[in-house]
């Protein structure tokens, strides 16, 4: 559990149940998954995607997503109307197909590690982060051109951004808040100006997720902490003070951390987070 990987999700997410063989996701729809590829709109290239991947989910956007990338020293910004999220039989992400333009763009993920959508800005109050990227470069294909680059996805609405994260991670985003800083007793500084997300799997188990961007290179990674590994929560006694979480030593990284002190950017978010954990600890 030293870093965020598909194994971290095995206990609380059944990926095969998280997606159907074919589905459509719309930010305006209350239904997450709508089956039947036969009724899904698209062209012949759309039909070919069903032949190459086991699970394909279409995220329809309102109205679009803007992707930004650098190629040969030049910055490109392109808008697309929907994203096809393509996974293999194990639930691993293989390709993102961006469509809604004359020429679609494909982003390929070559490794089997579950990529975490990285929010580039911390949430603060009602200011939600709308720009998503990944920590590693991907192979991108536009028309007949193939190149390596790092893409940034800028959504117009937070709902679309949430759906994108949920489909990639196969889980429900139940809480997000910006952290000014966070530290642990055993490892010191964990992160500065990052987001804390709580994800709920299909079996109801929840995981706390954050990016440890410590100045120490070897500690820069995504860290996930199951909420059932939390021993106690100490809410701040006054506004503007940090919350402190005591951790059970269930995993090596939790033994190293020992506790987790969070300075939230928003006091209301801090109160909501503490209430959520306090309730979990009370009901057991």
Q: Report the sheet with the most strands, covering strand number, pairing sense and barrel closure.
A: 10 strands, mixed
Distance between the termini: 23 Å
Count of helical regions: 6
CATH class of the largest domain: Mainly Beta
**So, CATH architecture of the largest domain?**
Roll
Topology (SSEs and partners):
Layout (H helix, E strand, L loop, with lengths): L5 H4 L5 H4 L3 E5 L17 H9 L2 E17 L2 E14 L5 E7 L5 E4 L9 E2 L11 E3 L4 E5 L2 E5 L2 E4 L2 H12 L2 E13 L3 E13 L5 E7 L8 E6 L3 E5 L8 E5 L4 H6 L1 E6 L2 H17 L1
Parallel strand pairs: 1-2
Antiparallel strand pairs: 2-3, 2-10, 3-4, 4-5, 5-8, 6-7, 7-10, 8-9, 11-12, 11-17, 12-13, 13-14, 15-16, 16-17
Describe the structure.
By secondary structure, the chain is an alpha+beta fold. It has 2 domains: 158 residues, Roll (PH-domain like), CATH 2.30.29; 112 residues, Roll (PH-domain like). Helix content is 18%, strand content 43%. The chain has 6 helices and 17 strands. The strands form 2 sheets. Strands 1, 2, 3, 4, 5, 6, 7, 8, 9 and 10 form a 10-stranded mixed beta sheet that branches. A 7-stranded antiparallel beta sheet has the order 14-13-12-11-17-16-15. Strand 1, helix 3 and strand 2 form a beta-alpha-beta unit. It starts with 5 loop residues before the first helix and ends with a helix. The relative contact order is 0.14. The N terminus is likely disordered.
Outline of the structure:
The protein has helices at residues 6-9, 15-18, 44-52, 158-169, 252-257, 267-283; strands at residues 22-26, 55-71, 74-87, 93-99, 105-108, 118-119, 131-133, 138-142, 145-149, 152-155, 172-184, 188-200, 206-212, 221-226, 230-234, 243-247, 259-264. The chain has 284 residues and is of the alpha+beta class.
């Amino acid at each position: 559990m030293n870093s965020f990987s598909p194994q971290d999700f095995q206990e609380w997410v059944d990926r095969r149940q998280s997606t159907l063989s074919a589905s459509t996701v719309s930010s305006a729809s209350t239904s997450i998954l709508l089956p039947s590829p036969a009724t899904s709109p698209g062209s012949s290239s759309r039909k070919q995607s069903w032949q190459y991947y086991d699970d394909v989910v279409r995220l329809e956007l309102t109205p679009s997503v803007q992707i930004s990338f650098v190629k040969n020293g030049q910055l490109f910004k392109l808008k697309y109307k929907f994203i096809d999220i393509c996974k293999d039989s194990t639930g691993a992400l293989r390709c993102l197909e961006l469509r809604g333009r004359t020429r679609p763009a494909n982003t390929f993920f070559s490794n089997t590690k579950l990529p975490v959508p990285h929010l580039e800005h911390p949430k603060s109050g009602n200011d939600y982060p709308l720009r998503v990227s990944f920590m590693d470069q991907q192979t991108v294909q536009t028309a007949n051109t193939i190149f390596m680059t790092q893409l940034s996805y800028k959504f117009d609405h937070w709902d679309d951004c949430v759906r994108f994260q949920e489909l990639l991670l196969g889980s429900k985003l139940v809480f997000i808040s910006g952290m000014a800083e966070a530290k642990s007793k055993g490892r010191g500084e964990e992160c500065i100006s990052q987001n804390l997300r709580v994800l709920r799997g299909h079996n109801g188990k929840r995981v706390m997720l954050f990016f440890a961007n410590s100045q120490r290179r070897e500690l820069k990674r995504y860290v996930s902490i199951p909420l059932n590994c939390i021993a106690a929560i100490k809410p701040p006694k006054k506004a503007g003070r940090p919350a402190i979480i005591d951790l059970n030593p269930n995993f090596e990284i939790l033994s190293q951390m020992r506790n987790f002190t969070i300075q939230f950017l928003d006091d209301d978010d801090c109160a909501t987070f503490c209430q959520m954990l306090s309730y979990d600890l009370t009901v057991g």
